[in-house]
Design goal:
This protein is of the alpha+beta class. Helices cover 37% and strands 20% of the residues. The protein is built from 15 helices and 16 strands. The chain has an eight-stranded mixed beta sheet. It has a five-stranded mixed beta sheet with strand order 13-12-14-15-16, with helices on both faces. Strand 9 and strand 10 form a beta hairpin. Bound molecules: histidyl-adenosine monophosphate. The site of histidyl-adenosine monophosphate has 25 residues, from strand 6, strand 10, strand 11 and helix 11. Histidyl-adenosine monophosphate binds next to strand 6, strand 10, strand 11 and helix 11.
Length: 433
């Protein structure tokens, strides 16, 4: 016999038991973003590979090593073959959609999206090949006020979810021009110590030297620590922007730690970058990250438009909800309807529908697939329902029904079916003991 086909490594099912935590997270985020005036946008999961090369950067890990590209396809209208990629992140597609549909031309826009992203990384706890982001992007707002608002959304979300121990790391990368000048200083510094660089860093020396600052290699720690400090080379406008952002955060009572080594793995950032980090998830502790990308819209063909946003790793936040014991459990049904005998089975199906009409909040499971009384009772127990309703041939004849509490001491009662909806409504209003 052939072996069962398994899911692809790093791509996971979200099983029913985990769904309440996901839905809790999703509904909390949705409500919160609505309160801040953000509109949802949905983009395709596949885009032209060139979009990510241009936006995220040719020499980033994401584009160099982690993109899933699909076979080239010709547009149905003809034209050139082009390569497509499963999106590794959402900002590029959101900017593309905004330019294409005129959404971000000459106006302010606050958008959010949610969905799967794909990166061919080495899977481990908190790092997957298919993962879910909720992302937020804003357009047309230059000041640090919007940076502060985005950070406040994160802070409020953690609080609303009940999550503890998530810290904010903050940095400014300056303008693109200031970064070019700083980049030259870095190349000088690292070139003078080429023998100390590992292979990755040597490769990045002339393509993306800022990423060397991000190196986790302990052998390079001293060299990285001795590198010129970006903050001493910030342009004055960026320095002012950063100071104002800090003042806004202080005013809102949001604590942060300035981390001059925070450079991010995507090329489009300028000025503010930030990460929300926890130490409870091991190596993959960044649960949310983002920053300002003032050059990206223009780089992708739009009119110069400032942008700022962030994205959360939902799987990591779910892991944290579980680790901190605040992931909600699956809700138990209110009622399991047992129907013994043919006439009862028919009457019961109709009764369940009447009850759903009468009590719109009622969660009722009807026994399906037959079975004797004992089997059905076992199913009722397993369903974790609070009450069993018992309908046998005798009850149908007499117009009555049995009601048995399954989680409480009280015994079974029999009542006229005509009184059932009223009685159940009253019972369900009383909290379970
Ligand atoms: P990013 O830092 O690449 O930024 O990803 C954002 C978040 O997605 C990370 O902090 C992490 O929580 C989660 N994440 C990333 N890769 C994985 C993975 N392999 N498995 C599980 N979770 C992962 C961006 O994607 C930018 N687009 C964020 C942004 C939006 N910047 C401005 N606007």
């Amino acid at each position: 016999m052939s072996k069962n086909i398994q899911s692809i490594r790093g791509m996971h099912d979200i099983l029913p038991d985990a769904i309440p935590a996901w839905q809790y997270f999703e509904s909390t985020v949705r409500d919160l973003l609505k309160r801040y005036g953000y509109s949802e946008i949905r983009m395709p999961v596949v885009e032209q590979t060139d979009l990510f090369k241009r936006a995220v950067g040719e020499v980033t890990d994401i584009v160099e090593k982690e993109m899933y590209t699909l076979e080239s396809r010709r547009n149905t209208e003809g034209g050139e073959d082009f390569s497509m990629a499963l999106r590794p992140e959402g900002t590029a597609g959101c900017v593309r959609a905004g330019i294409q549909s005129g959404l971000i031309f000459n106006q302010q826009q606050r958008l959010w999206y949610a969905g799967p992203m794909f990166r061919a990384e080495r899977p481990q706890k908190g790092r997957y090949r298919q993962f879910t982001q909720v992302g937020v992007e804003t357009f047309g707002i230059t000041g640090p006020d919007i940076d502060a608002e985005l950070i406040a959304i994160g802070a409020r979300l953690w609080k609303q979810l009940g999550l503890r121990n998530i810290h904010l790391e903050l940095n400014s990368l300056g303008t693109l021009q200031a970064r070019q000048a700083y980049r030259a200083l870095l190349v000088d510094h690292f070139s003078a110590h080429q023998e100390l660089l590992d292979e990755d860093s040597r490769r990045r020396l002339h393509t993306n030297p800022l990423r060397i600052l991000d190196s986790k290699n302990p052998a390079m720690r001293e060299l990285v620590a001795a590198a010129p400090n970006l903050h001493e080379h910030l342009d004055s406008e960026s320095a002012e922007h950063f100071a104002q952002l800090q003042s806004l955060l202080d005013g809102m009572g949001i604590p942060y730690r300035i981390n001059p080594r925070l450079v991010r793995g995507l090329d489009y950032y300028s000025r503010t970058v930030f990460e929300w980090v926890t130490d409870e998830l091991g190596a993959q502790g960044t649960v949310c990250a983002g920053g300002r990308y003032d050059g990206l819209v223009e780089q992708l063909g739009g009119r110069p438009t400032p942008g700022c946003g962030f994205a959360m790793g939902v799987e990591r936040l779910i892991l944290l909800l579980e680790a901190q014991g605040i992931a909600p459990a699956s809700p138990a049904p209110d009622v399991f309807l047992i129907m013994a005998g043919e006439a009862a089975a028919k009457a019961g199906m109709a009764l369940a529908e009447q009850l759903r009409d009468a009590i719109p909040t009622l969660n009722i499971i009807s026994n399906c697939g037959g079975g004797n009384f004992k089997t059905q009772m076992k199913r009722a127990d397993k369903s974790a329902a609070r009450f069993a309703l018992i309908l046998g041939e005798n009850e149908v004849e007499r117009g009555e029904i049995g009601l048995k509490p399954l989680r409480e001491e009280n015994g079974q009662i029999t009542l006229p079916i005509s009184q059932l909806a009223g009685h159940l409504t009253a019972l369900l209003a009383t909290a379970q003991q």
